[in-house]
Design goal:
Elements: H1 13-16, E1 27-29, H2 38-53, E2 61-64, H3 66-75, H4 78-85, H5 92-102, H6 107-119, E3 125-130, E4 147-151, H7 154-166, H8 171-180, E5 190-195, E6 201-206, E7 217-224, H9 228-231, E8 238-243, E9 249-253, E10 259-263, E11 269-273, H10 285-302, E12 306-313, E13 316-324
Antiparallel strand pairs: 1-2, 2-5, 3-4, 3-5, 6-7, 6-12, 7-8, 8-9, 10-11, 12-13
Length: 340
């Protein structure tokens, strides 16, 4: 992939920011991470770093490593809290999360996070949890941990990182680990901090049809505003089905767009009524075809069908996440053609 992977004449991601974040045990620049660095960056971080290094349009950023999490836990004696709370089956998650929220950052960890944040330059960031097991076929952690969007300012960044770490102990994750026979106390969590994309349109894309299993189809779902509305199932999005080989649109259905999630001035997000926008497609034809080609390039890079989260802003397409589609109906045949 060329670093200038974009449409509509916007700047390339590398031109927008080529931030160099000094490596340390606590912080690693996203562009220094590859697909094999799951233990260092979690599944999400490793795959984003891999795509960024390969020239895909991934927003610049850095990873707060599990080493920083371990230092935070050790300096605040949270391991003792975890052991004690583990005996309280009814309220242990709340007890642990409360202790995390009250804990202080070790000075060096705090210094490194804030230095990396400043090096990204002005503007809001997205702060996302990244666990080693979240995208594996045999586990289902996707969406269980915290994501903080449109985070503005140093105090807010630190609070968002702390919230991500605390979310390792949310009730849903604890229950899932118990069902799977996993040792929750041994779990680790990285945190990905990236420049925020204030999307005009965003959504998800599947490089094979996840419903029918058709390996000759690409499915794109889109909604105005930030992609959280689509990824969280809050809306009925626009749905476009393309033929992989010809790139032709086989089906295009407008969504209801019940809600639009927007970045709020000064930080945070807000929901607004989106029904008034539901009479026209949110993506022009050229963008649809470009997005499909990009999805297939990501699939080729990783060698398997992909579930891709994307955002469109200022004439540029950004990839926010890519993970393997781990459960497909038997009809799926990956690699059965791509747009010409």
């Amino acid at each position: 992939m060329s670093s200038a992977t974009q449409a509509g004449g916007g700047k390339s991601v590398n031109e927008q920011a080529e931030s160099e974040v000094a490596p340390s045990p606590f912080i690693v620049p996203l562009q220094a991470i590859g697909a094999d660095d799951v233990a260092l960056a979690g599944s999400k971080g490793a795959r984003l770093g891999e795509l960024l290094r390969a020239g895909f349009p991934v927003p610049p950023g850095f990873v707060v490593t599990p080493v920083a999490y371990d230092r935070f836990v050790a300096c605040n004696h949270l391991d003792e809290v975890i052991v004690r709370a583990s005996r309280e089956q009814a309220s242990r998650g709340a007890t642990i999360r409360d202790a995390f929220e009250k804990a202080l950052f070790p000075a060096e960890v705090k210094r490194r996070i804030l230095a990396a944040y400043r090096q990204l330059g002005p503007g809001p960031v997205a702060v996302r949890s990244s666990a080693p097991a979240e995208d594996l076929a045999q586990t289902a952690f996707a969406g269980q941990y915290e994501t903080c969007l449109n985070v503005v300012g140093q105090r807010a960044v630190l609070a968002a990182v702390r919230r991500c770490w605390a979310s390792l102990w949310n009730d849903r994750a604890i229950a899932y680990c118990a069902r799977q026979g996993m040792d929750q106390a041994a779990a680790k969590l990285a945190v990905v901090v990236q420049r925020m994309v204030e999307a005009e349109v965003a959504g998800v894309m599947f490089t094979v049809n996840p419903v029918t299993g058709a390996g000759d189809e690409i499915v794109i779902e889109a909604n105005p505003g930030l992609g959280q509305a689509v990824a969280s199932g809050l809306v009925t999005p626009d749905r476009i089905v393309l033929d992989r080989r010809s790139g032709q649109v086989k089906e295009q259905r407008l969504g209801r767009r019940e809600v639009i999630i927007l970045a709020r001035p000064g930080g945070g997000i807000e929901r607004v009524d989106g029904l008034a926008t539901a009479n026209t497609p949110v993506l022009p034809a050229a963008t649809i075809h470009y997005l499909a080609r990009l999805g297939l390039a990501i699939e080729r890079h990783f060698g398997c069908p992909q579930d891709v989260e994307w955002a469109w802003a200022d004439g540029t397409l950004f990839i926010l996440q890519a993970r393997p589609i781990t459960a497909l109906p038997p009809a799926s045949i990956a690699g059965s053609g791509e747009p010409e």
